[in-house]
Structure formats: structure tokens, C-alpha cells
Amino acid sequence: MSARSVEAAARGLPHTLYGVSLLHQGRVIGMGRIIGDGGCFFTVVDIAVAPQHQGRGLGKRIMTTLDAWLRANAPVSSVVSLVADGDARHLYAQYGFVESAPYAVNMEYRVGPASS
Ligand SMILES: CC(C)(COP(=O)(O)OP(=O)(O)OC[C@H]1O[C@@H](n2cnc3c(N)ncnc32)[C@H](O)[C@@H]1OP(=O)(O)O)[C@@H](O)C(=O)NCCC(=O)NCCS
């Protein structure tokens, strides 16, 4: 996961459809969010577990919670997508996600600072 600006986070987080945070001794050690239009498109983003807590089933716990929300709230014909970084695809495959390539590939660009 790459860093976001404070402005980007402050604008984006309130538009979360559904999100989970895992707390340990009062500190957030894991998170995951669903964003989208609430009808046609849902996107799973920001799945992360703190390095010292990885490999103990917490990523699955986050995904199981998001998956339950999607099953209750995503209407028939809607599309649920995500971008899997590296080997995290093995986690998402357990929740029904399949690779869309080669018929579709993720395309993106990142907004940089305005040049003057
Ligand atoms: C990806 C991430 C959230 C997984 O969290 P985690 O708590 O370590 O995962 P879990 O312990 O719940 O394991 C989840 C399952 O996915 C599999 N898995 C997770 N990461 C894997 C990896 N790197 N390679 C292979 N399998 C992996 C595990 O084997 C496990 O399946 P199993 O129980 O059937 O063996 C965590 O590694 C992370 O935060 N990584 C850095 C941020 C990141 O890359 N996020 C994903 C952005 S798309």
C-alpha cells in the first residue's frame, strides 16, 4: 500500500460504504474498506494487517467481515472488484475473486502535484 496525502484521506474516508478496523490494546492493527456507488460497483480497498500481526488469520477475518456485508448489500448484477498486490491474490481467491486478465486489465494513473 502506498501513502496518501492528508487531504486525499480526509476527503475519501467519509465516503466509505463499509469499513472495518481491528484493534489490539487500543491501536489499529488491521483494516479494510468497501467503496463504490452502492448499486452497480463495489471496490474492496485498503486491506492491511500490521506486519507483526500477519500470518495469524487476521486478513481472513477482515475479508470475511467485508464479504458478509457484500452478500447482504450488493444487488444482483453488481460487480465487486479489487486490485491484488502480489501474493495477496491468494487471500482474495478464497472469497470468490478471479483474475480478469486477459479480457480486462486494471489501468490507472496517479495524480501528482500540479506543476506551475
Ligand atoms: C495481505 C495481508 C492483508 C494478509 O493478511 P494476513 O493477516 O497476513 O493474512 P491471513 O493470516 O489471514 O492469511 C490469509 C490467507 O491468505 C493467504 N495469504 C496471505 N498472504 C499470502 C502471501 N503473501 N502468499 C501466499 N498466501 C498468502 C494465507 O495463506 C491464508 O490462507 P490459508 O489460511 O488458507 O493458508 C497482509 O499480508 C498485509 O497487510 N500485507 C501488506 C499490505 C498489502 O499488501 N495489502 C494487500 C493490498 S491488495
TrEMBL record:
Which PANTHER family does this UniProt record tie to the protein?
FAMILY N-ACETYLTRANSFERASE, PUTATIVE (AFU_ORTHOLOGUE AFUA_6G03350)-RELATED (PTHR43233)
Query: Mind telling me which InterPro entries this protein's record contains?
Result: Acetyltransferase_Butenolide, Acyl_CoA_acyltransferase, GNAT_dom
- All residue ranges annotated as the N-acetyltransferase domain in the record: 1-112
Q: Which PROSITE patterns match?
A: GNAT
Q: What is this protein called?
A: GNAT family N-acetyltransferase
